[in-house]
Design a protein that fits this description.
Layout: H1 8-25, E1 35-36, E2 53-54, E3 57-58, E4 60-61, E5 64-67, E6 70-73, H2 79-99, H3 105-116, H4 130-148, H5 156-163, H6 168-185, H7 189-195, H8 201-219
Parallel strand pairs: 1-4
Antiparallel strand pairs: 2-3, 5-6
Length: 220
């Protein structure tokens, strides 16, 4: 369960409701596994607020935590998520290259699509450095080269085109387009507010990815 609130006082009120509900229904929250994170605006230091407690115990404050497989940080940057995905991709590729080295080209391509193109929650990646973005892209390209036994410095765009496999930019565009489509078809009140606001930062980023990806693909 996740509670979100713009102020510490508001969060304390929500937790008080949780305490009262638990007392009425005989429930016990696991305070040791409950954590609090304060999202910081760039260039601003969060003000000291009242102590935030659950069932009489002060909650531990952390700078990042993993929620549904996605790393959320206090500065709202996705660099840690990129690094997690890059490492996971390297592990999966090494496993495929080791276990299926003697398989046919068609089998290797099928395995690569199944194990190396997931990029879980990539449609939510918005704030990151170009360095971490390029590191994941290079890891993706090298993973395909390793699995297929291709030269290290062969053209990435050529090898993907010849194999009929989406490159990194195409995957990100498809994931974000799918996410945008689901948001636009949703009847959830919060998502409706996003889809009706072209000025939304996430919406602008999705559009930017398609424009930037098309340019990168054109110039490769």
């Amino acid at each position: 369960m996740v509670l979100l609130c713009p102020t510490a006082n508001g969060l304390c009120k929500l937790l008080t409701i949780c305490d009262e509900y638990a007392a009425e229904h005989g429930l016990v929250y696991n305070v040791k596994k409950s954590e609090m994170i304060v999202f910081r605006a760039r260039g601003k230091k969060p003000l000291d607020g009242p102590p935030v407690t659950l069932m009489g115990t002060k909650l531990k404050s952390v700078s990042q935590f993993k929620y549904l497989g996605h790393i959320v940080t206090a500065d709202l940057l996705d660099n840690c998520e990129f690094e997690r995905e890059r490492r996971a991709l390297a592990v999966r590729c090494n496993m495929l290259a080791r276990r299926f080295a003697r398989c046919t080209k068609e089998v290797k391509i099928t395995l690569f699509k199944a194990f190396c193109q997931t990029f879980y929650t990539c449609s939510l990646w918005r704030s990151y450095s170009q360095r971490t973005y390029n590191a994941l892209r290079v890891q993706y390209n090298n993973a395909f080269r390793m699995l297929m036994g291709l030269p290290r410095f062969c053209s990435a765009s050529t090898m993907f085109a010849q194999a009929g496999v989406d490159d990194f930019y195409a995957i990100i565009r498809k994931r974000t387009a799918s996410m945008l489509d689901r948001v636009r078809r949703s009847v959830n009140s919060i998502l409706v507010a996003i889809k009706d606001r072209p000025s939304c930062s996430l919406f602008r980023h999705w559009i930017h990815l398609h424009v930037l990806g098309a340019k990168n693909q054109f110039f490769q």
